Amino acid sequence: MERAKETKTIRRNSLFVKLLGSFLLIIALLLSFNVLSFAFFQTNIHQEIIETNTLNLSSTVTGYEKQLQLVESDMLRFYFNERFSVLLSPDDQPNYTAVPAVKTEMNALLSNKMLHFDNVFILFRDNPFVIEKEGTSNTVNMFTKFYVSEPYGPVFWHRQFAEPYTFRLFPSARFREYKYDKSVLDKGELLPVIIKNKFNNQYIVAALLDADGLYRSLHHNGEDSFFLLGPDGEPLYHAPPRQLSENGAENKLPDGLSFEGNSGYVKRDDRYYFYRKGENSGLLYVNVIPYVRIASQVEKLNLLLLSIMGAAVGISVLISIWLSMRFNSPIQGIIRLLQRSGHPHKLGSSIHEFDWLGRSISDMLRDNNVFDQDLRRKNKLLQRYGYMSKIKSFHHWNELRDLIDMSRPFYLVAFELTFTRQMAAEDQEKTVYYIHEYINLHMSGRFPDSVTLQMEKEQIVSLLFTSDDAEVVADMLHRLKEVFDRDREYGFVTIAFRPARRTPEELAGAYEEVQAMLGSRQLNRDTQIVTELPEQELGALMTSSQEQELASTLLAGSGERTAALIDGLLAQMENSRVSAGQFAELGKQLVAKVLKLLLEHHYDISRLLDGESPFLLLKMCWSTGDYSRFFRRFTNEAAELVANRKAEQDPIRDFVLGYVATHYGEDISLEHVADQLKMSRSYLSTYFHEKTGQTFSEYISGLRMDRAKSMLSTTNTRIQDIAAEIGYQNVNSFIRMFKKATGLTPSDYRRSGAAFDAKEPG
């Protein structure tokens, strides 16, 4: 509940809300101004609509007045144009020769569509002769066949000669034409116009105007009802609205309706009557608009204004949201960059400052990510080192305690890799790395918190922090064994796993146990899983009598007898089903004893096995047959050295070699040995070099180094004691000479494959 309240508060105080609120406040101020303006305008909108309709009617009146003036002017030409002065002959009868000129003028006048003439007539008082656009006719035919309308028959037209006016419009009427095929042609609503010359009443000029066409061209609002009244109030023309009302009230003006003044409007019932009197013609123009029309216009205008206001508010709100998001988005992007610091991305923005800020933060986060990855990698290395320190009980363990998790129980699994000769030496290190990664991948996939370490050159250890039973771990190890067995041609793996969870305090002891278990594998070339601690180790692998027999047969130069003796020992151990480690221990002891015998009797052991280390060759023995073949070769070559020595006896050389073999641990010199032989130093030096191929000092140094190698390989004697035993009082001098001879320090030599894996005490 508290978290939800806090989240709500944070959102209410966010930059986006603040920006949007500011914009909405501005919109509210502008909206209040618009509302006030709208309220003010709404109070005047009714009057504005009335004025608009008044202006519309005024425009219509102006158009009609100008049109009637043009009609009057064009019709008067038939009286005052000199070309038409011959219409009457001297006896006041029509002059038929003038008809073509009159007809031409009529058609020119009728061709102007803007005047809305349908036809023009010239009627004669004392003759029924009529001139019109098509030619000539008589009054009866013209107004009973071609232009027929009940109010405007031949009598009407003849009666107009006696009427006292000069220009007059008559009420419009529907005219029709009766054709020869008895069909009827509707001429439309026509408005009669007559012009008379008070000085010449022998003929009159009449015209029929297209009343509807004239109305459509001069009045632009066809939704109202329009009336044209004469000066005496007589209706001359009426244009009904497009949509007639149900009661037909728009077809006539109500009784008793009076129009005061020259212009204005009258409201009667539910209608407005806008009127205006023509200044020249004296005609009265009336426009009838239903009140509902004005109310509808007001409503439409209100709706339009409200729509515009609503659209403006909506667009303003959208723009406010867009601008708020536009400003807020880079800020949120920066926040996301900071929150997602492990995966920095570039923040793009069209705002220069935000873009620069985003790029700077992105660069900083990228650098921070690099530092973080480097720190994680180093912490991981330190964590591995911490586990290794704990396993091996290094004295600075307390400094690394916080780097590792030692609060949970675990299983400990050790893997020891052994390579055959098929695996090239230069590929072994890379292969160990790949196997380490493969084991780590499978262990971490099944046990996410596992830690896999490479403890030695060919040894890997995994700590499995899991609550699963030991059977789950064993099943995983058996699957790994199936994979390793596929490449037994190149090597095999010994897997040590004790199926019991260990506490953090037991880590070092658990490691010592799996080390012992690794040494208890059986003698073969298969990948093995060892799950039990080895039994109590056997006692002495050789009896004293067997050691004496080995020495006597070897010094007798009998390699076959020596090999047969060793084969017996191997068979005895095979029957006892001892471990591969015990076979290796026996092999090392036998090699050490043979080398010691040869060195004590001053034999050059560098010729054995083509200069290869016998201890390295022992590591390639994975069966009793391998051991038998190795020792047969080794003892035969050693016996051959003895036999060759016996064939070459040299008293001086033998004395020197024997004396050195007995006293190499003392401070002896060439002068001292020469005194023993009663000869000069220079002679003995030359003689010894000729017989051995070495100088006296080289021989002593080589003998001491061979003895040191043997002791480093077969004993746990301290390096200081070995140096003293072979004649070096200064241990640093011994280390320097040993490294010069072998390329390794004594400690490195003891840990290398050329020596036992025994650790130096202290």
From TrEMBL:
Sequence intervals crossing the membrane: 20-41, 303-323
Name of this chain's protein: AraC family transcriptional regulator
Ranges where the HTH araC/xylS-type domain occurs: 654-752
Alphabetic keyword roster: DNA-binding, Membrane, Transcription, Transcription regulation, Transmembrane, Transmembrane helix
Species of provenance: Paenibacillus ginsengarvi
GO molecular function: DNA-binding transcription factor activity; sequence-specific DNA binding
Domain of life where this protein originates: Bacteria
InterPro entries on file: Homeodomain-like_sf, HTH_AraC, HTH_AraC-typ_CS, Tscrpt_reg_AraC-type_HTH
